[in-house]
Amino acid sequence: MVGHRGNVKCALFTGPQDQFIASGARTMLVSASGDRTAKLWDIREPTTPACAATFTGHGEDVYSVAYHPGSLHVVTGGYDKTVRIFDVTTETMMKSFAGHDLSVAQVTFNPLGNLVISGSKDKSIKFWDILSGTCIKTFAAHLGEVTSVAMSTDGSYLLSSSKDNSTRLWDIRMMQPVQKFKGYQNISKHFIRSGFLRNRLVISGSEVRLL
């Protein structure tokens, strides 16, 4: 797909991964780029994908983008330390959340769509209320930059990865980590991603491990 003028930092299908596994439905894709934009793509015709929307407003590279569960908004995070929410229909920015001290590596919505979760190079994970725009909770257990955040489909657990050589599983109800996975070594130059796949955890970096 041609459209971005910089390196693509993130690209993912819209909606929960389990939904695609069950139905095979992959009609929309969102992407984030070093050209300071995020884009929404219609891929119903894979050979001729169409750019459905372009989201601008970041002052630097956009590292991450996620699609709202209700298909109303996308959220982005990037090098300029901000998290931003855009209206899919109008392509306008609705809110900008500032609070991280360093760049935002990844953003995601909770399943209800009322919270945005962001992981940052400042070693923290923040929970943002999308209506008020305020940070309602900060997790700061990681000793290295947070490179990945992902929520379980029921919203009960959060999975985060960091350059402190660990991946942590958080209980959202108790608001604390309940398990720590270690296994990667010397990953200072690697960008570790983690996520949920049905009832198992997939941790990915330079290699993939099932825990």
Outline the structure in words.
The chain has a single domain, classed as Methylamine Dehydrogenase, Chain H, CATH 2.130.10. The strands form five sheets. The chain has a four-stranded antiparallel β-sheet, with no helix packed on it. It has a four-stranded antiparallel β-sheet with strand order 5-6-7-8, with no helix packed on it. A hairpin with a 7-residue loop joins strand 3 (37-42) and strand 4. Helix content is 3%, strand content 52%. Mean pLDDT is 84; it is low at 16-24 and 206-211. It is built from one helix and 19 strands. With 211 residues, it is mostly beta strands.
What is shown here, in short?
The chain is mainly β and 211 residues long. 3% of the residues lie in helices and 52% in strands.
Structural class based on helices, strands and sheet pairing: mainly beta
Give a short account of the largest sheet: 4 strands, antiparallel
CATH 2nd-level architecture? 7 Propeller
What's the mean pLDDT score? 84
CATH topology: Methylamine Dehydrogenase, Chain H
Which CATH class? Mainly Beta
As a whole number of angstroms, the C-alpha radius of gyration is 16 Å
CATH homologous superfamily designation: YVTN repeat-like/Quinoprotein amine dehydrogenase
Strand order of the largest sheet: 1-2-3-4
User: Tell me, what's the shape?
Assistant: globular
Number of separate strands: 19
User: Number of DSSP helices?
Assistant: 1
Number of domains: 1
Proportion of β residues? over 45%
SSE ordering: EHEEEEEEEEEEEEEEEEEE
Cα-to-Cα separation, first versus last residue: 34 Å
Stretches where pLDDT is under 50 for at least 5 consecutive residues are: 16-24, 206-211
Pfam families: WD40
Keywords: Repeat, WD repeat
Family: Belongs to the WD repeat MORG1 family.
WD repeats: 28-44, 55-96, 97-138, 139-180
